[in-house]
Write a structure and sequence with these properties.
heterodimer; B: 7-stranded mixed β-sheet; globular
Chain lengths: ~300, ~400
């Protein structure tokens, strides 16, 4: 796997000067992904922060072929591109030895929610592409509305903290688990704070012939009410509290990639973010307890599956 | 070789199988489709061509029509010749992507087997589906017969890919009426189709040209969005000539004449019905009956609805005294069907305008017969006599 020096020496395919917020987790994720293959790469992006922030005409941050067609269909769009690639190769309109990689990017809204059908369809059809979900846990581009990935208790504009209801009342959907149920050859969770792990996973995923998936936590200062300079630290704490475990499933075998020496309390992660401020009121302590209990259970489940076939 | 020798005539096919057969002869690079009644047999038949190796097309059996059009967009932007087929709710589900296909100027060819929209659920023919997509920047061709459906599909490839256009094309035929009934038609041999459509010449950037990266589907703010849409409108203005030119070339190969519209007994007609697709055939029989009675009536059958040939239509109707536009879809404007309002508007520049009425017919597969057309002609002749229109907008073929 590549060293940091090798990675930094590579051509930058995602140009700076984009309009993503400072402290946004998405740019380092995209830059790392695009550096994770030696082959040319074509990207499709769902409507969302990444698309809006990188493609305001007449400018583009993409130094690779790139398409955005709509919100819910980046997996279907890449299906078409990848199929055209096979069709044109078969017909000799592309050289048979020309290897091109395909990647689709979507946020949690475009992946967990409105885009789930297209993602499921594309995975089932076994197109050869990597799907990357940058998961910032809400519809950030449109004003921080809750998504099915929004953590329990979070204050968003559609799960606001009110007199009666204190923030989001449901736990987040476990999309990685849903993807694994499609029996894809490779699926993993990653975090931008651990560039090495993320890069390894992207390299593996992009080398595989078939559908692969990466779910990557992506801190969002705007929606999380955090300081931009703390984003990477917050991602790290998400992993150390086991809110966002780093694991992969390769050929059905699950492997936990990082086991914190001392699992930190979820409180440590929650208190860093303004969206959970209300959880620290005395009458809401039950929510932190409930959150911790949920995380413990999920972490134990993962440890139990570690090294086993799923 | 003469056109007659090249063509295999008297082949009995249903409309859908004729469309699938045309697709087989076209052998597109990619087909992405989701089956929906009554277009299902297009996809089924084409799937069997793929399974049998009769085509070398890559077929994407997507999980929805939305994804069908999305995959077509991805494949077309990647430089492939792309086709699909749908109907009704399927077209409605694609609606968002129709605008994106035309906005990106991707020459996708789609067959729309016309069917009513819910609610109530109905699988039979009307034009609500394609009329709902009329403003999406797609060229729309309507077919009266199985022969026309076949011919339109072959021509659509050339129209869509024309360098001055790069517009997606929708070929419409009537659900069950044309899609499932067997008619005799002339089909070409494969080489003639191949020769007519030619090798795919890419006129837009390809996503697979990795040495020259292109961004498709960027954000356009108010300083640039309208320019992009204006270019689309320009292409649609150019489309009329391209459709006409392609039809002329097609006539040389096939011996079959196509234009923007068909005029039937219009030269000396006092009264005329304007109607599209299979119902035009029924109306022609009514015209013949009326003519036997010595009554001067005719029929105008638009083939091209987008772009709308308003000058040619006004010219065709300028000497008619009374006109009925029969729409197989309503626009619920409380004023008239979609074809009616466009035709009425086309006539505005005439010094002497015919009297005109809007009649909605045949929704959800309701039978439209010769007698229905005869009744309309009788009403039109009365309007011609009295100069009075009792009801501008009305439904026919409805139980009241």
């Amino acid at each position: 796997m590549a060293t940091l020096k090798e990675l930094t020496g590579k051509k930058e395919l995602f140009a700076g000067g984009h309009r993503l917020c400072s402290g946004c987790g998405i740019p380092p994720i995209v830059r790392l992904i695009l550096r994770s293959t030696e082959h040319p790469i074509v990207a499709s992006t769902a409507t969302g922060c990444l698309e809006v922030g990188t493609s305001i005409y007449p400018y583009t941050s993409w130094r690779i072929p790139w398409i955005h067609s709509a919100f819910e269909n980046t997996a279907a769009t890449i299906s078409g591109i990848e199929t055209a690639y096979r069709a044109l190769k078969k017909r000799g309109r592309l050289p048979a030895d020309k290897e091109i990689k395909f990647v689709a990017f979507g946020g949690d809204g475009g992946t967990y929610d409105i885009g789930l059908q297209a993602l499921s369809g594309a995975l089932e059809r076994r197109h050869s592409f990597l799907y990357v979900c940058y998961d910032n846990g809400a519809y950030m581009n449109t004003g921080i509305q809750r998504s099915s990935s929004t953590p329990f208790g979070a204050n968003t504009t559609t799960s606001p903290v009110g007199e009666v209801i204190p923030g989001k009342q449901e736990f987040r959907k476990d999309l990685t688990k849903i993807v694994i149920a499609h029996n894809v050859p490779y699926a993993a969770q990653a975090s931008p704070h651990n560039w090495k792990d993320l890069n390894n996973k992207a390299q593996k995923a992009l080398a595989i012939n078939g559908p692969t998936f990466l779910n990557i936590i992506s801190p969002c200062p705007l929606g999380w009410y955090t300081k931009p300079e703390e984003s990477i630290e917050i991602a790290k704490v998400a992993v150390d509290t086991c809110f966002w475990p780093l694991y992969e499933v390769e050929n059905s075998i699950l492997k936990v990639n990082y086991k914190p020496k001392e699992k930190r309390a979820i409180e440590d992660w929650l208190k860093m973010q303004g969206r959970f401020k209300h959880l620290f009121l005395p009458n809401n302590k039950w929510m932190i307890d409930k959150f911790q209990e949920y995380i413990n259970k999920e972490w134990e489940r993962l440890l139990m599956l570690d090294g086993k076939q799923v | 070789m003469t056109a007659e020798k090249k063509a295999k005539c008297s082949t009995g096919l249903t409309g859908n199988i004729a469309v699938a057969y045309a697709m087989k002869q076209i052998n597109p690079d990619v087909v992405a489709a989701y089956p929906i009644t009554p277009s299902t047999t297009v996809v089924e038949e084409f799937s069997s061509y793929v399974a049998d190796g009769a085509v070398t097309t890559e077929l994407i059996t997507v999980e929805s029509e939305h994804s069908a059009m999305s995959a077509c967009i991805g494949a077309a932007a990647a430089g492939a010749r792309v086709m699909t087929a749908t109907s009704s709710q399927g077209l409605a589900l694609m609606w968002e992507m129709l605008y994106i296909a035309s906005g990106m100027r991707l020459p996708i060819v789609m067959t729309c087997v016309n069917r009513a929209l819910s609610a109530p659920l109905n699988i039979h023919c009307d034009h609500s589906d394609s009329m709902g997509a009329r403003d999406s920047g797609w060229i729309q061709l309507y077919s009266e017969t199985v022969q026309e459906a076949y011919d339109n599909v072959v021509q659509a490839v050339r129209i869509a890919e024309h360098g001055n256009l790069l517009l997606p094309v929708m070929v419409c035929l009537d659900g069950f009426i044309t899609s499932h009934s067997i008619e005799n038609l002339c089909v070409f041999d494969d080489d003639t189709v191949k020769g007519f459509i030619g090798e795919y010449k890419l006129n837009q950037p390809s996503l697979l040209d990795v040495e020259h990266p292109t961004s498709y589907g960027a954000v356009a703010l108010p300083d640039s969005y309208i320019e992009s849409r204006r270019q689309l409108a320009e292409a649609m203005i150019n489309a009329k000539d391209v459709i006409t030119d392609v039809a002329k070339e097609y006539e040389k190969v096939s011996g079959r004449h196509y234009g923007l519209m068909e005029r039937y007994m219009m030269d000396d007609a006092d009264a005329a019905i304007v109607i599209m697709s299979s119902a035009a055939g029924t109306t022609k029989v009514a015209v013949d009956e009326m003519r036997k009675r010595g009554l001067k009536v005719g029929l105008l059958k638009p083939r091209v609805f987008r772009p709308f040939p308003y000058i040619e239509i006004a010219d065709a109707l300028k000497n008619i005294k009374s006109v009925a536009v029969l729409d197989r879809a309503d626009s619920y404007s409380s004023f008239g069907g979609p074809l009616f309002t466009e035709i009425r508007s086309s006539l505005y520049e005439l010094d002497k305008r015919p009297k005109i009425i809007s009649r909605i017919f045949g929704l959800g597969g309701r039978e439209y017969g010769v007698q229905d057309a005869v009744k309309i002609f009788e009403e039109l002749l009365k309007i011609k006599e009295t100069g009075k229109v009792d009801k501008l907008y009305n439904y026919i073929t409805v139980r009241e």
